[in-house]
Write a structure and sequence with these properties.
Elements lengths: L1 H19 L3 E8 L18 H9 L1 E7 L2 E2 L5 H10 L25 H7 L3 E6 L6 H4 L4 E4 L11 H17 L6 E10 L7 H6 L42 H4 L10 H31 L6 E7 L18 H4 L3 E4 L7 E8 L3 H8 L15 H4 L9 E6 L6 E7 L2 E8 L4 E8 L14 H7 L17 H17 L13
Parallel strand pairs: 1-6, 1-7, 2-9, 3-10, 4-5, 4-6
Antiparallel strand pairs: 2-8, 7-8, 10-11, 11-12, 12-13
Helix pairs in contact: 6-9
Bound molecules: calcium ion.
């Protein structure tokens, strides 16, 4: 009897210790990656990412993950600051204007500060710059460098090696603390210099001559087809004159011809597959260390990217390819093999990570909403309405709002010379086709003939009520989020 009691007591202690074993975190961030590059979001994509596919199969894929936007041409900067602080776009502490709408002690409540305080070992590798330095510098181990080359030392493998080295040191030391690793890449952001093998796989070259088209359409290794919503030019000016991403990206410049876009996509895919390979090495290492099962893994990007979609090249727009981000979560407590259709913001990441780690934070500091209930399969979404901003060029810029299948985008740029409204039903027109996509020359380039109703519906009287509803919702969101601007057709309160 006594022996049984001892055994039961020992089992109870073991159970408690197990229950108290806190999870590790591996947060992986790509730089400039559209969800539609990945086969899990776009089965037509030739990009192969077996390691991400494995994470997705063992975890949860989000179909409704969005970043809130930017007040700078460097969209990375507010986006990454939202990840670090959990604050909404107009409430970020590093906004370059006089209104500071963040608590003075915000830097004590940013991602690494919170995990440090909670007793985690924190490590980071990522590109340098265009981020929130007061947070970045608080990781106790930090190896940042911008790596966009095509070799092990100059490309994504370098970031992977920093994580592998860190895990080796940890395995040989006595650190019993759980870890938080921020595993950031500098790619597939341009310059998209891929490795020789992967460039060959996607038929692409590191194109250097802006006056020549790249030599594509190699019959043995064709470059990827243009995206389905490719256009040779955007129907009106996006409002940010001389924007680097639209005119100076090496390999593209102002060119939007089919050969250039196909080649640049091939380069993007070469860089993204290399990222996948580096993720695979870290997953294998964690498995060998016996840590994989106790590690919660997040994979996302700071924002999407156009690369020829809608005639655009950069990340300074609010179409789905750019407003949305890929988002995968896998780990203990996360439902396996589920797609969450509901909406989350990238800025919800911090609150969710803390929630999963059992770490408290006040709503004064983070404005994110934890989507832990979604990860546990208890609900499908945490937000009904999404609001997006691009305000890095001429003001007020672009705004978007989305509810259910309906989405509105408005453009008020270049001193009022561009005032446009777009209304889409994303269930019927997920690629946000415009009337320009129906042009026979475009259809020949994409191989896709849109259906008659796959157009901008803003001026269709049949949808006047819907447009009115979305216009009101946008204004409400602008007020709610302290947007300092109003558009031409909104009351100037
Ligand atoms: Ca970026």
């Amino acid at each position: 009897m006594k022996l049984i009691r001892v055994v039961v007591a020992a089992l109870t202690v073991a159970a408690v210790a197990n229950a108290e074993k806190r999870p590790n975190f591996l947060f992986i961030l790509a730089d400039d990656q559209s969800p539609f590059d990945l086969q899990m979001y776009n089965p037509e994509s030739p990009l192969e990412t077996p390691n991400l596919d494995r994470l997705a199969a063992e975890g949860m894929i989000f179909d409704g993950a969005y970043h809130m936007g930017s007040w700078s041409g460097a969209v990375c900067s507010p986006s990454r600051s939202m990840i670090m602080t959990g604050r909404t776009v107009w409430h970020l502490p590093n906004r370059k204007d006089k209104t500071i709408l963040a608590p003075a002690d915000i830097n004590d409540f940013v991602l690494p500060a919170m995990f440090n305080k909670a007793g985690y070992a924190t490590m980071r590798t990522c590109k340098k710059g265009n981020s929130y330095e007061p947070a970045n510098k608080q990781f106790t181990v930090r190896h940042d460098a911008t790596k966009r080359g095509g070799t092990a030392e100059t490309g994504s493998e370098w970031h992977g090696n920093q994580v592998l080295k860190y895990l080796d040191e940890r395995a040989s030391g006595k650190d019993e603390r759980p870890f938080f690793i921020y595993y950031g890449f500098s790619h597939p952001h341009d310059v998209r210099d891929g490795t020789v093998d992967l460039l060959r796989k996607y038929g692409a070259v590191n194109h250097k001559d802006k006056n020549q088209k790249p030599p594509t359409l190699n019959p043995e290794r064709p470059t990827p087809e243009v995206p389905v919503n490719y256009l040779p030019e955007h129907p009106f000016h996006h409002g940010h004159k001389n924007l680097r991403d639209e005119v100076r990206v090496p390999g593209v410049w102002k060119n939007r011809d089919v050969a250039t876009i196909r080649n640049e996509q091939g380069r993007e895919f070469a860089c993204s597959e290399n990222i996948d390979i580096q993720i695979g090495k870290v997953l294998d290492k964690l498995e060998a260390m016996g840590e994989l099962e106790n590690t919660i893994i997040f994979y996302t990007a700071d924002h999407g990217i156009a690369i020829g979609r809608h005639g655009l090249q950069g990340k300074q727009n609010l179409y789905q390819h750019t407003w949305r981000v890929p988002y995968i979560v896998k780990g203990p407590g996360v439902k396996k093999g589920v797609r969450a259709t509901g909406n989350i913001y990238l800025l919800d990441t911090l609150k969710t990570l803390l929630d999963l780690g059992g770490i408290e934070i006040s709503t004064e500091h983070t404005e994110g909403i934890s989507f832990k209930p979604v990860l546990e399969g208890k609900q499908d979404a945490t937000r009904d309405v999404l609001y997006g901003v691009y305000c890095g060029g001429s003001k007020p810029g672009m705004r978007s709002v989305k509810k259910g299948d309906w989405k509105l985008i408005k453009y008020d740029v270049l001193d009022g010379s561009v005032r446009e409204t777009q209304l889409f039903n994303l269930a019927e027109n997920p690629n946000e086709f415009l009337k320009e996509h129906h042009d026979p020359a475009v259809v020949r380039a994409t191989g896709v003939k849109p259906k008659p109703n796959q157009v901008n519906l803003a001026d269709n009287p049949k949808y006047a009520e819907k447009r009115k509803e979305l216009e009101a919702l946008l204004l409400e969101q602008m007020k709610e989020n302290d947007d300092p601007y109003r558009l031409w057709d909104q009351p100037q309160d």
